[in-house]
Write a structure and sequence with these properties.
CATH topology of the largest domain: Rossmann fold
Number of strands: 7
Strand order of the largest sheet: 3-2-1-4-5-6-7
Shape: globular
Number of helices: 8
Helix content: 40-55%
Bound molecules: nicotinamide-adenine-dinucleotide
Structural class: alpha/beta
CATH class of the largest domain: Alpha Beta
Strand content: 5-15%
């Protein structure tokens, strides 16, 4: 479905909407009729995304926001209400990836990951919830396959993404009777600036892409649009009986169990 009127008269706040998955969500919501406020720390990219939405005939605005700060999150929600008079959809995407075990992760970096990936969702939802209750709106949080499984040396990120499932479920049950649905999406590897950054840490960035492609049973990584489609579905009335859920969008990444029975090689 690609109905331009699906989100007509509705307003959305998209964190991390300047680029990557959040950027794709912001553009898709706008293309389907929503008024979109992008809250991101990246000013130039945020303004560029707004310009692209407007050029395509959509309605959008940008507010420079550091989602790790409660005051900034409150300001973003206030701005959405000031601009649009309502809030129907909150799409929390802002996130950072850091690497390390509990020994090698500096305490400041642990706090940074928790603030950006987890506390931000608490702050944004705390301030957005009164408006979402009025609109009987919906929240979609961006977790990761690393909410279910993990790799070596990703302690802080994995912990933040596991915790987001707990926060999603808590809010889903707390606000179910208010008509507010809260879900999350767990992508596998997605082609975004975050992946480019992760690959750049390797002496052979292309080998990182190659490894990522090969580890997904479908043999490729996702585009940001493929993840945005699921976010937009969960945010829409089409998902009216879905709350507290976590949708994997992972090209089968979480399917394999190590070791293959002999018959599979015949
Ligand atoms: N790319 C992947 O493979 C992948 C896989 C699973 C989950 N995710 C998750 O999806 C979300 C989006 O990831 P992406 O790949 O699009 O990342 P990205 O780095 O490409 O984009 C992230 C966006 O968040 C913004 N941001 C970061 N810190 C912020 C802060 N403190 N305040 C405001 N904005 C901030 C950035 O400016 C950027 O616009 C993240 O939560 C990430 O953990 C990504």
């Amino acid at each position: 479905m690609n109905d331009k009127s699906e989100f007509r008269q509705k307003a959305a706040l998209v964190t991390g909407g300047a680029m990557g998955i959040g950027g794709a969500v912001a553009k898709m919501l706008a293309a389907r009729g929503a008024k979109v406020l992008i809250a991101d720390r990246a000013e130039a990219e945020g303004n560029k995304a707004v310009a692209e939405i407007k050029a395509a005939g959509g309605e959008a605005a940008f507010i420079k926001t550091d989602v790790s700060k409660s005051a900034d999150c409150k300001a973003a929600v206030d701005k959405a209400i000031e601009l649009f008079g309502r809030l129907d959809v909150v799409s929390n995407n802002a996130g950072i990836q850091r690497y390390g075990t509990v020994e090698s992760t500096p305490e400041s970096e642990w706090d940074e990951v928790m603030s950006v990936n987890l506390n931000s969702v608490y702050y944004i939802c705390k301030y957005a919830m009164p408006h979402l209750k009025k609109a009987k709106g919906s929240v979609v949080n961006m977790t990761s396959v690393q909410a279910f499984a993990t790799q070596r040396g990703v302690a802080a990120y994995t912990t933040s993404k596991h915790a987001l499932i707990g926060l999603t479920r808590s809010m889903a049950i707390d606000y179910a009777r208010d008509g507010v649905r809260v879900n999350c999406v767990a992508p596998g590897t997605v082609d975004t600036p975050m992946l480019k950054y992760a690959a750049s840490l390797d002496p052979d960035p292309e080998s990182v892409y190659e490894t990522c492609r090969n580890m997904h049973p479908v043999g490729r990584i996702a585009s940001a649009d493929e993840v945005a489609e699921v976010v937009v579905f969960l945010a829409s009335e089409r998902a009216s009986f879905v709350t507290g859920a976590c949708y994997s969008v992972d090209g089968g990444l979480l399917l394999p169990i190590g070791g293959e029975p002999k018959t599979s090689q015949e």
